[in-house]
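W.,

You were right to be curious about this one. When I first looked at the sequence I had no strong expectations either way, so I just let the prediction run and decided to look at it fresh. Below is the sequence, 141 residues in total, followed by the output.
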Amino acid sequence: MTMVIDGFASPVTGGNFVDLVNKGFYTNMKIQRSDGFVVQTGEPDGDAIGYVGKPSKSIGAGKNGERLIPCEITVRGDKGPIYETTIEDEGRGGEATVLPFSSYGAMGWARDEYDPNSGSSQFFWLLFDSDLTPAGKNVLD
């Protein structure tokens, strides 16, 4: 499988994913969800809901030691990503993002519904173009 990772628009998320791939974290991991809407994987066996690793200045720690990745979204025209919030919470929900999240094959980082900084290692692909998200827009994944 070949994936394109945008390290400019999402450097922490992209770097985390590449690090986990290089460590073999996803090797032989089963698909945890496949329901006709998305395919999702990345949850390890055990109590942790994501990759267990050391926190740092930009990466938090979950209740079971999960390495938590802050939400980062780059809005078109911005010089860099916004962190730890959603574009909706910033009052910019109608603006286009650099990485649109609305088409077949788009990869999303799984997070708790109300916590933009809860991503760790779980990710998913959309199986069809979403009618829920207008083209070029992004919602909290």
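Here's what jumped out at me. The first strand starts at residue 33 and ends at 34. And, maybe more interesting for your project: The CA atoms of residues 50 and 127 lie 23 Å apart.

Coffee later to discuss?

I.
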